């Protein structure tokens, strides 16, 4: 029997925002929650103890990458992902669909440049059975079906899995988006059958697709919600659409989603987006943004106007530590922040590390950025429980 449950603890009267709690066999997740991405079974530059000190409740591992390296046989030897990486809290895996989609998009872009399509072998081929793709590591050919995706995720042992889907490229025609959505629906049924056959307790999320077309998104929301998934994921909103199109998709699908199931938004998590998606009723969401920005020298901080040379400069949630103006700056990234980085290191020192390309720079700013995200999510959860979500949103935005 599954140990996965979800309970709503508080709701905002003016929006669709809600605070809740997901229970898994490996621990609880207070929602709304940000889910960091640990692509290759690691949140880049940080170890598990640091993640726990930051307050990370769960992170997402990419099935595609682990399938290729180190391979499922290695994970089986260790028992599962948790034992392999020494992480005893919940984990989420994706279906590999998005990574395979990315290969397909690369293939599409190549075709646009070639006068002859057959000039190179395709990176990915999609059929009713599944997807044939070539590894980005060595060019070897692999086949992923809905059944194989579920089998792989069960082997990895994640607490929350995602059904295999076709993530439509952007911009796609309505006819292509419809065909991809219908294939995603047929694959969703196959994923459920395979999950039930293997008899594991992992929670499976179905994926809503349909591109940027309202009728397709509504149809997909109704169909996926009608199936016995443990949770609902919204896909295809991080592939190049505008912010408005992302918001439109959320507005279209949420009226058709079951109230008692957790909702996960795939691949979105910029600061400006968080209050929007939480306000629509998203419970969890994943994004590479905080750690990717950190490795580029960008640190997150609360929106703040600064006066410089008789003009107001507004750095929206970010400071660029690569800039020379921070070379002699003795202040921390963010005044009042209690993270390890802000308590011990100056902007001047961090600027030096990035200029010298020292690896410590990535770790220290990644630590701060994830701490920043966890602190914000905790504030949002508390505001929902205390009935002041709208006030907090105004304070930030």
Described by the principal axes of the CA atoms, the overall outline is globular
Structurally, the number of domains stands at 2
Q: Mean pLDDT, rounded to whole units?
A: 92
What name is given to the CATH topology of the largest domain?
Answer: TIM Barrel
Strand order of the largest sheet: 4-14-13-12-11-10
Task: Characterize the structure shown.
With 397 residues, this protein is of the alpha/beta class. The protein has two domains: 5-287, TIM Barrel (Alpha-Beta Barrel); 294-373, no CATH class. The protein has 15 helices and 18 strands. It has a six-stranded parallel β-sheet. A three-stranded antiparallel β-sheet has the order 1-2-3. Strands 7-8-9 form a three-stranded antiparallel β-sheet. Helix 7 packs parallel to helix 8 (214-226) and helix 9 (243-253) packs parallel to helix 10. The longest helix is centred in the last third of the chain and has 26 residues, at 360-385. The radius of gyration is 21 Å and the shape is globular. Residues 114-119 and 305-314 have low confidence and may be disordered.
Which helices and strands appear, and what pairs or packs with what?
Elements: E1 5-11, E2 18-24, E3 27-31, E4 33-36, H1 48-54, E5 59-61, H2 63-68, H3 72-78, H4 81-85, E6 91-93, H5 97-113, E7 124-126, E8 131-134, E9 141-144, H6 146-156, E10 160-162, H7 174-198, E11 203-208, H8 214-226, E12 231-234, H9 243-253, E13 263-265, H10 271-280, E14 284-287, H11 289-295, E15 298-300, E16 304-308, E17 311-315, E18 318-320, H12 340-344, H13 347-355, H14 360-385, H15 389-396
Parallel strand pairs: 4-14, 5-6, 10-11, 11-12, 12-13, 13-14
Antiparallel strand pairs: 1-2, 2-3, 7-8, 8-9, 15-18, 16-17
Helix pairs in contact: 6-7, 7-8, 8-9, 9-10, 11-14, 13-14, 14-15
